[in-house]
Design a protein that fits this description.
The chain has 468 residues and is of the alpha/beta class. It has helices at 14-25, 41-46, 48-66, 68-71, 82-106, 165-168, 185-196, 216-228, 322-336, 365-371, 386-390, 419-431, 436-440, 451-461, and strands at residues 4-10, 30-34, 110-113, 115-120, 123-128, 131-143, 147-149, 162-163, 177-181, 200-204, 232-234, 238-244, 249-254, 260-265, 267-270, 274-276, 309-311, 350-352, 357-362, 376-381, 397-402, 409-416. Strands 1, 2, 3, 4, 5, 6 and 17 form a seven-stranded mixed beta sheet that branches. Strands 8-15-9-10-11 form a five-stranded parallel beta sheet. Flavin-adenine dinucleotide is lined by residues 10-16, 33-36, 41-43, 47-48, 51, 115-116, 144-147, 165, 186, 277, 280-281, 313-314, 320-323, 325, 353.
C-alpha cells in the first residue's frame, strides 16, 4: 500500500467523506483513515440515518394506530414487531455504509482502517487491530474526528441502564418507560420515537423550554403536541444524579420548588449535548490548539495553527450538524486547491425530525430583538392550509421574519408537515437576498404545504393573506 498522500482525511463522517471525495475530484491523491469498521461516522452509523429510520417506522405505526380509522381504513389487531423495527434500521444503515464504500472506490480514495495519531505535523501513525501500525505521510491533513456524547455531574453513562443515543437506537426490547435528560434535539427526537410505540416518556430539561436554542414558539408548540401524545415534559428541573438499579434506572432531580424528587424507569437516556473528539489524536505532537471548549481552533480558512492541518465538522466550533460538516469538507478541499469557496453560516438550516417537523434558518425573533433590529412577522397556521386539512396535518405554522424597509427575509421558522423540505426554498431566497414580495409573486402549486410560506410572505409584506 502507498503510504504518502497529498491529502489525508482523519474520520469518515459526513465532513470527512465529503472532503475526501471533493479532494479526489480535484486531482489530489487522497486517503481516509477511519477507526471503525464501517465508514460514515456518527451520522450514518449512530446518528442522523438510524434515527430517521426509526422515526419513519414509528410514525407509520402511530399513524396507522391513531388516524387510519378516520381515513376509513380499518386494520385489525395492529401490532409492533420491535425486533423487526430495529433490524430494518440496521439494514438502512448497512445500505448507507455500503454506498460509502462504493463512493470511496469510485473516487479512488485509499481507505485505511485504524486509529490515527499524529507523530509530527506531516505524519500519522495508524494503529490497526491484529496488524502492525503503519506510518502515513501527508502534505495536508484534514481532521474530521467528530464528537462524542457528553454528560453532567452526578450522571455516569454505563451504556446499560444509563444510556446515550447510540444505545437507545439498538435496544433489544421495547422499553416500558424511559426518562430522557435533556429536551434538545436528540431528546425530542428520541421521545417521539419511543412515545409513538407506547413507551412512557418523561423529559427532564434544565432550561425553561424544549429545544431552547431555536425560536421560542417552537418549544411551546412542541410541548403542547407532546402533551397530546402523552409525553411528560418537566422544564426548569435540575437533575442531581442517576443510579443503575440492575433492571431499572433511577433519576433524582430538583423540581421547580427545589424539592428533591426521584423517577424510576427502564432506562435513562442522557442527551445533554456532545463534545468534540480529539482523544488519542496526538495533537501534542503538532502545533494544533484547542479553544476553551476543547474544540480545535481554526481560522477563517478552517486551518489550524499548523498551516497544513485543517479541521472541520463537530470537532470545531459551530452547529453540530451533518450538512455543516459536509459544507466544511468541500470548503477545505477547494481551499487547498487554491479556490475561494464560501460558507454562509447564517444560512445553515436547523431541522428537528419530530412530527410535525421543525425547520429554521436565519435569525430568530429573540436574536433580532437582542440586536435591536426592527422586523415584520408573517405567520400562517397549517390549520388554514387546504393541503394540510386533506392530509389531517393541521398542527403548526410557518413564520417568516422580514426587514420592514425592503422586505429582505431575515429568518424562516416552520413547525409543520414536511418542514424539513420546505425550508430549502426559503434558504435560496435568503442566499440571493430576495424580498418577501419576490417570494409571493411566484406561483406555488395548489394544494401544497408550500402555500403556507407564500401566505406568510404575503402577511409579512403587509399585503395580507388570501386564505385567512
Ligand atoms: P462524525 O460523523 O462524528 O465522524 C467522525 C469519525 O471520525 C467517526 O467515524 C470516528 O470513528 C472517526 N475518528 C475519530 N477519531 C479518529 C481517529 N483518531 N482515527 C481515525 N478515525 C477517527 N445532524 C444532522 O445534520 N441531521 C440529523 O438528523 C442528525 N441527527 C443526529 C442524531 C443523533 C442521535 C446524533 C448523535 C447526531 C445527529 N446529527 C444530525 C449530528 C451529526 O451526526 C453530526 O453533526 C455529524 O456526524 C458530524 O460529522 P463529522 O464528520 O464532523 O463527524
Ligand atoms: P442539544 O444541545 O441539542 O440539547 C441538550 C439539551 O440538554 C439542552 O436543551 C440543554 O438545555 C439540556 N441540558 C443541559 N444540561 C442539562 C441538565 N443538567 N439537565 C437537564 N437538561 C440539560 O444536544 P443533544 O440533543 O444532545 O444533541 C447533540 C448534538 O447533536 C446537537 O448539537 C445537535 O445539533 C445534533 N443533533 C442534530 C439532529 C438534527 O439535526 N435533527 C438530531 C440529533 C442531534
Amino acid at each position: 500500500m502507498d503510504t504518502t498522500f497529498d491529502i489525508v482525511v482523519i474520520g469518515s463522517g459526513p465532513g470527512g467523506y465529503a472532503a475526501a471525495i471533493r479532494a479526489s475530484q480535484l486531482g489530489f491523491k487522497t486517503a481516509i483513515v477511519e477507526k471503525y469498521n464501517t465508514l460514515g461516522g456518527t451520522c450514518t452509523n449512530v446518528g442522523c440515518i438510524p434515527t430517521k429510520a426509526l422515526l419513519d417506522s414509528t410514525q407509520y405505526y402511530h399513524t396507522a394506530a391513531t388516524k387510519f380509522a378516520i381515513h376509513g381504513i380499518n386494520l385489525k389487531d395492529i401490532s409492533l414487531d420491535f425486533t423487526q423495527l430495529i433490524n430494518r434500521k440496521a439494514d438502512v444503515v448497512k445500505q448507507n455504509t455500503a454506498g460509502l464504500n462504493y463512493l470511496m472506490s469510485k473516487n479512488k480514495i485509499e481507505v485505511i482502517t485504524g486509529t490515527a495519531s499524529f507523530v509530527g505535523s506531516t505524519e500519522i501513525k495508524v494503529s490497526r487491530l491484529n496488524e502492525e501500525p503503519i506510518l502515513i505521510k501527508g502534505t495536508y491533513f484534514i481532521i474530521a474526528t467528530g464528537s462524542k456524547p457528553s454528560t453532567i455531574p452526578g450522571v455516569t453513562i454505563d451504556k446499560k441502564r444509563i444510556i446515550t443515543s447510540t444505545e437507545a437506537l439498538s435496544l433489544t426490547e421495547k422499553p416500558k418507560s424511559i426518562t430522557i435528560i435533556g429536551g434538545g434535539v436528540i431528546g425530542v427526537e428520541m421521545a417521539s420515537i419511543y412515545s409513538r410505540i407506547g413507551t412512557e416518556v418523561t423529559i427532564i430539561e434544565y432550561s425553561d423550554s424544549l429545544i431552547p436554542t431555536m425560536d421560542r414558539e417552537f418549544g411551546k408548540e412542541l410541548k403542547k403536541l407532546f402533551a397530546k401524545n402523552g409525553i411528560k415534559v418537566l422544564l426548569n428541573h435540575k437533575v442531581q444524579g442517576t443510579v443503575n438499579n440492575g433492571d431499572t434506572a433511577a433519576v433524582t432531580f430538583l423540581d421547580t420548588n427545589n424539592t428533591l424528587q426521584e423517577i424510576t424507569t427502564d432506562y435513562c437516556l442522557v442527551a445533554v449535548g456532545r463534545k468534540p473528539y480529539t482523544e488519542g489524536l496526538g495533537l501534542e505532537n503538532t502545533s494544533v490548539k484547542l479553544d476553551d471548549r476543547e474544540r480545535i481552533s481554526v481560522n477563517e480558512k478552517l486551518q489550524t495553527a499548523n498551516p497544513n492541518i485543517y479541521a472541520i465538522g463537530d470537532v470545531i466550533a459551530g452547529p453540530m450538524l451533518a450538512h455543516k460538516a459536509e459544507e466544511e469538507g468541500v470548503f477545505v478541499a477547494e481551499t487547498i486547491n487554491g479556490q475561494k469557496p464560501h460558507i454562509n453560516y447564517n444560512l445553515i438550516p436547523g431541522v428537528v425530525y419530530t412530527w410535525p417537523e421543525i425547520a429554521s434558518v436565519g435569525f430568530t425573533e429573540e436574536e433580532l430583538k437582542k440586536q435591536g433590529k426592527d422586523y415584520r412577522v408573517g405567520k400562517f397556521p397549517f390549520l388554514a392550509s387546504a393541503r394540510a386539512r386533506a392530509a389531517m396535518e393541521k398542527d403548526g405554522f410557518a413564520k417568516v421574519l422580514t426587514d420592514p424597509k425592503y422586505g429582505e427575509i431575515l429568518g424562516i421558522h416552520i413547525i409543520g408537515p414536511r418542514a424539513a423540505d420546505l425550508i430549502a426554498q426559503g434558504i435560496i431566497g435568503m442566499e440571493y437576498e430576495v424580498t418577501d414580495e419576490d417570494m409571493f409573486r411566484i406561483s406555488y402549486a395548489h394544494p401544497t404545504y408550500s402555500e403556507a410560506l407564500k401566505e406568510a410572505y404575503l402577511i409579512s409584506s403587509g399585503q395580507g393573506a388570501i386564505n385567512i
